[in-house]
């Protein structure tokens, strides 16, 4: 008689363990899906950064190697800012003057033969903005400086 009274207790204990294991499994699955989303977002940022760096290289190459043989970085400062086209989607580029007060300045020092305070330079900022992510809500910005010798 005592054995029949205890048969229902085993069922209840098994159901309690099943509910606990289901809760743990659900929590682990939620953590995994969040981790997958985070790694996807990280991958998108890395790709966007690499595309922005490639666009920076493209802008500098296109400005220096014009088909007419003119280096656009050597233009007078009044011509800037320029907004050159880039081939990457959702990417914009701008070349602006980095010199204080828009003045032509002495060229930065180099390790080659000294020409300090002899040559003058346009110091320009090349800025690339790349939108990425769902609905292009995130952005990567790459900045580079270019010192271009100009005739005094």
Automatic annotation (TrEMBL):
Q: Which residues form the signal peptide?
A: 1-25
Source domain of life is: Bacteria
Q: Which UniProt keywords apply?
A: Signal
Q: How is this protein named in the record?
A: Type 4 fimbrial biogenesis protein PilX N-terminal domain-containing protein
């Amino acid at each position: 008689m005592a054995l029949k009274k205890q048969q229902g207790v085993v069922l209840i204990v098994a159901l309690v363990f099943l509910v606990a294991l289901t809760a743990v499994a659900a929590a682990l699955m939620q953590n995994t899906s969040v981790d997958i989303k985070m790694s996807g977002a990280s991958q998108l940022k890395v790709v966007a950064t690499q595309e922005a760096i490639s666009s920076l290289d493209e802008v500098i190459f296109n400005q220096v190697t014009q088909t007419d043989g003119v280096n656009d970085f050597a233009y007078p400062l009044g011509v800037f800012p320029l907004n050159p086209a880039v081939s990457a989607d959702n990417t914009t580029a701008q070349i602006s003057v980095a010199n204080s007060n828009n003045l032509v300045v002495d060229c930065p020092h180099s390790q080659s033969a000294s020409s300090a305070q002899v040559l003058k330079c346009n110091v320009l900022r090349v800025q690339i903005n790349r939108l990425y992510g769902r609905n292009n809500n995130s952005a990567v910005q790459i900045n580079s400086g270019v010192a271009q010798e100009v005739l005094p």
